[in-house]
TrEMBL record:
It comes from Flavobacterium pallidum. Residues 12-173 form the Diphosphomevalonate decarboxylase-like N-terminal domain. It is an enzyme of class 4 (lyase). GO terms for molecular function: ATP binding; diphosphomevalonate decarboxylase activity. GO terms for biological process: isopentenyl diphosphate biosynthetic process, mevalonate pathway. This is diphosphomevalonate decarboxylase. Belongs to the diphosphomevalonate decarboxylase family. Pfam families: MDD_C, MVD-like_N. The keyword Nucleus does not apply.
């Protein structure tokens, strides 16, 4: 198929891991399997314009952020293109203009790498599909997730599905270290429209990047045990997603969040990404849960912000609690109300 120019706009959401990916092997292969909720409102929207060039000896692209030139991500995209070139031989034949915007606030401390890399990968797959219109959906999404993984590991969980597994695991015959797959069994109605309110505790740039953090799992004294635990927690969570047991959900998810940060604190060099307000919030959540019996819990990414997870049917009570007890611990009182979503979309 001859394709001279065109433009594609896609959105891809962020995701929040329930069982965490922390530690990787070469070529973005995870040291353990992980599972996440896809989000709905925290998204990246990317417009990819492409035009055929006469020479095809190097990559050629312009990067824009909200329509304005943005040079600082160029090396990251250059590296991404180098990594995926063998799988997308047409890359050097086109000049690309990549214009990106995020639906979440600027420098909110919410990483845009998962949503950003997923959006770009899905957009590139749409170009490939225009070159090969016969391509089926299964191949399209699997390859999009595969490419996203090469951009940023957890991005492969932002392409398709509400609950996504990445990494080989005995309970899921279709699972893979190379791409994310949607949870293959029926999900209990308790998780329908599950809520994630993200409390922005610290909007600054992280002191230690996740790349460095993953690396420190090599030679980490607890690594082998941690990787086994992740398999076990994913096995237990697989049952919970089907039986809807929220008591078990809370204990697995909170334990995973604290273990992630325990790995950071026991790395060499050690580091701490939580802030005093992170701990204040955690203690308030525990107290509220004990007093009310409402199954609200927290999880953490590689940062100080707190994700508050709860079923939709207790939203009114939990939001009132958040407003009266937790918002004071957020930077400028900022938080984002999100909920479980479905993945990337063509716009
Ligand atoms: O995708 P990366 O390399 O930025 O790693 C993300 C790791 C965590 O967010 C901490 C956990 C996860 O599974 O998403």
């Amino acid at each position: 198929q001859e394709l001279t120019e065109g433009s594609i706009t896609v959105s891809a959401p962020s995701n929040i891991a329930l069982v965490k990916y922390w530690g990787k092997k070469q070529h973005q292969i995870p040291a353990n399997p992980s599972i996440s909720f896809t989000l709905s409102h925290c998204k990246t929207v990317t417009t990819l314009a492409f035009a055929k060039k006469t020479q095809s000896d190097s990559f050629s692209f312009d990067l824009l952020f909200e329509g304005k030139p943005k040079e600082d991500f160029k090396p990251k995209i250059q590296k991404f293109f180098e990594r995926i070139e063998t799988y997308m031989p047409f890359l050097k034949n086109y000049h690309f203009t990549i214009d990106t915007k995020n639906t979440f606030p600027h420098s909110s401390g919410i990483a845009s790498s998962a949503s950003g890399m997923a959006a770009l990968s899905v957009a590139l797959m749409h170009v490939e599909k225009q070159l090969d219109p016969e391509m089926d959906d299964g191949h399209f999404y699997q390859k999009a997730s595969f490419l996203a993984r090469l951009g940023s590991g957890s991005a492969c969980r932002s392409v398709k599905g509400s609950v996504v597994i990445w990494g080989n695991h005995a309970d899921f015959s279709e699972s893979s270290d190379f791409y994310g797959v949607a949870f293959p069994f029926e999900i209990h109605p308790n998780f329908k429209n599950y809520q994630d309110t993200i409390l922005l505790v610290d909007k600054g740039k992280k002191e230690v990047s996740s790349t460095v953090g993953h690396d420190l799992m090599h030679g980490h004294p607890f690594a082998a045990q941690r990787f086994l635990q992740a398999h076990d927690n994913l096995h237990r969570l697989c049952a919970v997603m089907q039986n809807g047991n929220l008591t078990d959900f809370v204990s697995i998810v909170e334990s995973e969040a604290l273990t992630l940060h325990a790995m950071m604190m026991t790395s060499m060099p050690y580091f701490i990404l939580m802030k005093p307000n992170t701990l204040e919030i955690i203690n308030h959540i525990w107290k509220f849960r004990k007093e009310t019996g409402i199954p609200v819990c927290f999880t953490l990414d590689a940062g100080a912000n707190v994700h508050v997870l709860y079923p939709e049917n207790v939203s009114v009570e939990v939001l009132a609690f958040i407003k009266s007890n937790l918002v004071g611990y957020c930077e400028n009182g900022q938080y984002i109300c999100d909920a479980i979503g479905h993945g990337a979309e063509l716009i």
